[in-house]
Design goal:
Blueprint lengths: L4 H20 L1 E7 L4 E12 L7 E13 L10 H21 L7 H4 L10 E7 L3 H18 L3 E5 H16 L11 H14 L3 H4 L8 E6 L4 E6 L5 E6 L5 H12 L2 H6 L5 H9 L22 H4 L3 E2 L5 E2 L14 H13 L43 H37 L8 E5 L6 H13 L6 E3 L10 H13 L2 E2 L31 E2 L1
Parallel strand pairs: 1-4, 4-5, 6-11, 11-12
Antiparallel strand pairs: 1-2, 2-3, 6-7, 7-8, 9-10, 13-14
Helix pairs in contact: 2-4, 5-15, 8-10, 8-12, 8-13, 10-13, 12-13, 13-14
Length: 525
């Protein structure tokens, strides 16, 4: 027996209302395979006015998983092994994500005859990255978009890193459970305590990341300081054209770390192991502001470019110490650190502590915090280094290498802020520095940046960095970036190809995120 006419109309209207709500609430399945991590995530996101009159984005992770390929035998990433890993594990992760899709019995979705609600969008990393790895993820993503009849967005990997703090804010606004618990709330409490002491309680309640802001993108493949004016408008202020910071730290770590620690690692994330080795007493999960690194920042440019003389007889020269050129360069520092590490077995240290020259010796307060005290055993090492003495010297080298590298990053940030203070209007001035990418998980990096900005007159600049698990490559950030691009009206075509090198700069030859009129990377939906 057919339903009454008014009942049919009611169902039709209910379906339209549900569809409208679902357009407001976006369900995105994302894939990330730019390097050696196979990542899949499922993200719900929508606008809400529950906490303020101005609509705010709220997000909830329904699924977020990563499998990293085992590359230890190569000491780095082997492209063929990475692709094989993606081919072996990506379909399995997608299958797991599908099982996490919410159930849906509305009339709009009953026609699919599926027990779950299909996503509204597919997001996948398009570049930059290793083309063969990117292609593996993109082909699976295209297949899902075709099968479900939904749009697809090819995401810029570094844009996704840059937007991760926005994702974290949205996750923290969600009242529902999420597979990614964020320590952002604890970090907000630290901010609140600091700002309450200076009478800034209102700002301390909730961090809002508004454009424009500075982005420090630091990973194994990229080191860039970017001025972000909007979702798709970015200007590169400073970059490196040789070795990225993460790559330099990885290579230095393979020389500095003791063989026992190097061989016991479960992956090739040597830079992360270097931080743990340099600061063995740093508690896991603790915010850098709650730990005393005993670090004294350089208060002037002159102090910043001083040679770092160790108490063991060797020294390190800061990168680009004779230049104010707006670029990053870690080649020389990395080579110095590796040479010193190679020579430790036979190196003879100073015998007389009085002859030791420490960096920043113009005052007792500005002495190197890495140096042992003059009466310590490390200050009187014999030519034949004992194992424990060599370990301590390697630990010192790890700290010194990171310190000079991170101060080099901070030096260019200070230069940009100084220039902005002279020439930019209030609306163009940045109030926030976002630190993202794999190296952003380094707590000592965050500490150095914060302390340097404080002593150089920019303590008002807020530093935002994602939780450690969202600093390294992940599909959650791809889901968020893809969702934001879709909301802005952009989608990708199914004939898109991987992009090995893809500059974020809107003034570059490629046209930045959106591309050029002749070669656009997105189309209007």
């Amino acid at each position: 027996m057919a339903e009454p006419r008014h009942k049919q109309e009611q169902n039709r209207l209910f379906g339209l209302v549900t569809q409208f709500k679902r357009q407001k609430e976006l369900l995105t399945l994302a894939i990330e395979t730019s390097c050696d991590d196979t990542c899949v995530a499922l993200l719900q996101s929508y606008e809400s006015t529950e906490r303020s009159e101005k609509p705010e984005m709220v997000a909830r992770l329904l699924f977020n998983k990563k499998i990293t390929s085992d590359q230890r035998q190569f000491g780095g990433v082997h492209p063929a092994v990475a692709v094989e890993w993606h081919q072996r594990h990506l379909a399995t992760l997608v299958e797991e994500a599908i099982r996490s899709l919410p159930e849906d019995n509305t009339s709009v979705h009953q026609q699919t005859r599926l027990p779950y609600r299909t996503p509204n969008l597919i997001a996948v990393t398009r570049g930059p990255g290793m083309p063969t790895s990117l292609a593996t993820g993109m082909e699976v993503a295209k297949g899902l978009a075709l099968a479900w009849g939904i749009p697809i967005v090819g995401v810029h990997h570094m844009q996704a890193h840059a937007l991760t703090p926005q994702l974290v804010e949205a996750l923290d606004r969600s009242a529902g459970p999420s597979v990614a618990s964020s320590p952002w709330g604890a970090r907000q409490r630290v901010d609140a305590e600091v700002k309450a002491a200076s009478g800034q309680q209102e700002e301390a309640r909730r961090p809002n990341l508004d454009y424009p802001y500075l982005n420090l993108l630091v990973s194994g493949g990229h080191t860039q300081l970017v001025y972000s004016a909007s979702l798709t408008s970015h200007l590169i202020q400073c970059t490196t054209d040789n070795i990225a910071l993460g790559d330099m730290l990885d290579k230095a770590a393979r020389k500095i770390l003791p063989p026992s620690m190097l061989n016991s690692g479960q992956n090739v994330m040597y830079a992360a192991a270097l931080e743990r080795f340099a600061f063995p007493r740093f508690p896991a999960g603790v915010d850098e502001r709650e730990y005393n690194f005993k670090y004294t920042p350089p208060a002037t440019r002159a102090a910043e470019i001083e040679q770092h003389n160790s108490p063991y007889g060797w020294y390190l020269s800061p990168p680009l110490y004779a230049s104010r050129k707006m670029e990053y360069n870690f080649t020389g520092l990395g080579s110095q650190a590796q040479r010193i590490a190679d020579s430790l077995d036979s190196f003879t240290s100073y015998e007389d502590p009085a002859e030791q020259v420490l960096s920043r010796e113009d005052s007792p307060e500005s002495r190197s915090d890495l140096a042992p005290s003059p009466d310590s055993s490390a200050a009187r090492l014999s030519p034949a280094l004992k194992e424990e003495d060599q370990i301590e010297q390697r630990r010192y080298l790890a700290r010194a290498t990171m310190q000079l590298a991170f101060e080099h990053l901070a030096s260019r940030i200070v230069m940009v802020l100084q220039q902005q203070a002279k020439t930019s209007g209030e609306q163009q001035k940045v109030k926030t520095l976002v630190v993202s990418g794999g190296v952003a998980s380094n707590q000592f990096l965050r500490h150095v940046l914060r302390r340097v900005l404080e002593v150089r007159g920019f303590g008002h600049i807020r530093i935002m960095a994602p939780p450690v698990d969202l600093c390294t490559d992940n599909a959650a950030m791809i889901a968020w970036a893809g969702s934001e691009m879709w909301r802005a009206g952009w989608v990708s075509k199914l004939d898109m190809l991987p992009i090995k090198k893809w500059s974020m700069s809107s003034t570059g030859e490629q046209g930045g995120i959106l591309g050029t009129p002749e070669k656009p990377f997105y189309v209007r939906r």
